[in-house]
């Protein structure tokens, strides 16, 4: 058992309290490799933003949990080297079992998500509560979820959104003891969030209703990539095929961040940025075969994307 505190990581308690009071959101950025992690840390140091580093089950399978944890530990030192010891949380994204959450906590994670949203309400409560009890005994925080996002989530796919029911949130929060709550208000994972012709709009009215029931309680938005058209165009210009990819308008995320939403998860936009940069190098310099020559530009574009998100969308810049 290693405590995240020995690694220089923090849980989200103070981050979220400040974010709720200050009307901004902390970025939840996923990483699977060194270049993504470097881009996240560089962007957050340069904008003086706290950050939540997210590890999904897919990331654990791809990169190995041990490597990812030591990379996060290295990121704490790396941030200092870059000139600012920003608060860094290591978070399990979409944990699906108690055992997985426990293993991450014992391994140095400072925050875990237990996503029981696909279960019946009572079962979601029971599972979430069990994780909370174990996590809190180790001063680790827990994100729960109510409502189901359309698309693929936790390897479970749902055709339609099941919006979070505002009448359930108070009971859920009180019975489970969770520290933050992910809700479903029309965001979804991946690059295809709305159909062509559909108005891209999230249900800020449901968010307002939830906020009324649990004032000041930290709310989380998953599936919050905006799928910038210029990135999609660049990918397609250099041989990609991303037709009709549509994301969440940034002004709606900004509005959400100003209210009770204090964590916003973004992964797909970063994937698009890296792919756009790599495709461009492959198209313009076909003789290039040194991975640093295409992963480097991908890392740079990713960093610029995250800096802009922190400054213009989340409002987390200068909050470290
Ligand atoms: O919630 C989904 C995140 O974008 C992580 O995706 O499961 O493919 O690593 P992943
Ligand atoms: P996006 O696919 O919209 O980037 O969402 C990421 C996410 O919710 C990670 O948990
Ligand atoms: Zn998610």
Describe this structure as you would to a colleague:
With 320 residues, the protein is of the alpha/beta class. The chain has one domain: TIM Barrel (Alpha-Beta Barrel). It contains 12 helices and 10 strands. An 8-stranded parallel β-barrel has the order 1-2-3-4-5-8-9-10, surrounded by 10 helices. A two-stranded antiparallel ribbon has the order 6-7. Strand 4, helix 6 and strand 5 form a beta-alpha-beta unit. It is globular, with a radius of gyration of 19 Å. The protein starts with 12 loop residues before the first helix and ends in a 6-residue tail after the last helix. The model has no long low-confidence stretch (mean pLDDT 97). The protein binds glyceraldehyde-3-phosphate, 1,3-dihydroxyacetonephosphate and zinc ion. 1,3-dihydroxyacetonephosphate binds next to strand 3 and strand 10.
CATH architecture: Alpha-Beta Barrel
Number of helices: 12
The CATH superfamily label reads: Aldolase class I
Segments where pLDDT lies below 50 for 5+ residues?
none
What composes the largest sheet?
8 strands, parallel, barrel
How is the CATH topology named? TIM Barrel
The computed structural class is: alpha/beta
Structurally, the number of domains stands at 1
Overall, the morphology is globular
- Give average pLDDT, whole number: 97
Strand order of the largest sheet: 1-2-3-4-5-8-9-10
Strand residue content: 5-15%
* Distinct bound molecules: glyceraldehyde-3-phosphate, 1,3-dihydroxyacetonephosphate, zinc ion
Q: Briefly, what CATH class?
A: Alpha Beta
Order of SSEs: HEHEHHEHEHEEEHEHEHHEHH
Summarize the amount of helix as a percent range: 40-55%
